[in-house]
Design goal:
The chain is α/β, with parallel strands linked by helices. It has helices spanning 55-74, 86-90, 94-105, 114-126, 166-172, 181-202, 218-223, 237-249, 252-257, 269-282, 296-305; strands at residues 8-13, 17-25, 33-42, 79-84, 109-111, 135-141, 146-152, 155-162, 207-213, 233-236, 288-292.
Length: 308
């Protein structure tokens, strides 16, 4: 039975997904806390790719935050921390959405910068306790931003928050189904334009490990039938490339029907794999991928409970 009141609720208002995670601090667990309740709502604030939240997306988002507030009340949560990321910080009406969401839910929401977002992702990944002494690259792929964080052990060496995500990649490019060679060249040009500076800034480092911070990396885990592991799931680079190749070269019908494809990730699986494939093509020293189930919201938990 869960202890009431619950200690902490963290809320990540992302560009496509709103996440709620309610936890109790618990030193007896491997990660220092115990999950009480988890909720994920696909609201697609960034639909259409424009820097404005549409009326329909706003309705979905407001309904989701009110549902989240109801759950927090049910669990008598002692403290609530809610943050908004790329879509809310970059859209022309993000602040008005936050104002209305706060009024209707009673939850205070902070819009965080890309620098702050990168730092929280890094702190979340620390909970996996990865022991590699080689340099690793944390990759967090969102709807409107992609974060790249270079680490060695527990040390953060550099961090970049870029203004490109899976929603942007689709809206900035028109491509066939399946995409042609010309389409793919155009897409990789877009990725170069938005990720190239960050990639170039780190390309003098020998990076052996790619750390996938949940999100679209769940596609790889699901297709390979790997259960979530708090210490991370290791995936061979060749296996990841084989899956990404099938997704990139296939039609939408093939992607949606692919064995193991998570229904919630199928729509943007092409754009997700394009970004992963791009990163692997730029850092050819990567010998393994580790997918961890931690990202921004777990970083908030790490900060609050001072876990790692």
């Amino acid at each position: 039975m869960h202890k009431l009141p619950a200690d902490l609720a963290v809320i990540d208002l992302g560009s496509n997904t709103f996440h709620l995670l309610i936890v109790n601090q618990d030193a007896t667990t491997a990660i220092g806390y115990r999950e009480v309740y988890r909720l994920r709502k696909f609201v697609h604030l960034s639909e259409g790719g424009a820097d404005v939240i549409t009326e329909a997306a706003s309705r979905r988002g407001l309904a989701a935050i009110k549902e989240i507030a109801t759950v927090c009340r049910q669990y008598l949560v002692t403290e609530i921390v809610a943050v908004g990321t790329a879509m809310l910080r970059n859209s022309s009406n993000g602040l008005s959405f936050i104002t209305q969401a706060e009024a209707e839910s009673g939850i205070r929401i902070s819009i965080i910068s890309g620098v702050r977002e990168s730092d929280l992702i890094y702190k979340g990944v620390l909970l996996a306790g990865l022991s590699s002494t080689s340099k690793g690259l944390i990759l967090d792929i969102g709807g409107r931003s992609t974060e790249l964080i270079l680490i060695q052990g527990k040390l953060k060496i550099a961090a970049y928050s870029t203004q490109i995500g899976i929603t942007d990649l689709r809206s900035r490019n028109q491509y066939s189904d399946p995409p042609t060679i010309s389409d793919l060249a155009q897409i990789y040009n877009t990725l170069d334009e938005h990720l190239g500076q960050a990639v170039s800034a780190m390309n003098h480092h020998t990076i052996k490990l790619l750390i996938g911070a949940s999100g679209p990396f769940e596609i790889l885990e699901s297709i390979l039938e790997l259960p979530t592991d708090v210490r991370g799931n290791e995936i061979a680079v060749n296996a990841a490339k084989e899956i990404s190749s099938r997704i990139i070269s296939g039609s939408k019908k093939l992607r949606v029907g692919m064995y193991g494809m998570p229904r919630s990730r199928a729509d943007y699986s092409l754009e997700s794999m394009l970004i992963i494939d791009y990163i692997l093509s730029k850092y050819t020293d990567i010998t393994k991928i580790v997918v961890v189930p931690f990202t921004l919201k777990e970083g908030l938990i790490n900060e609050k409970f001072r876990l790692a």
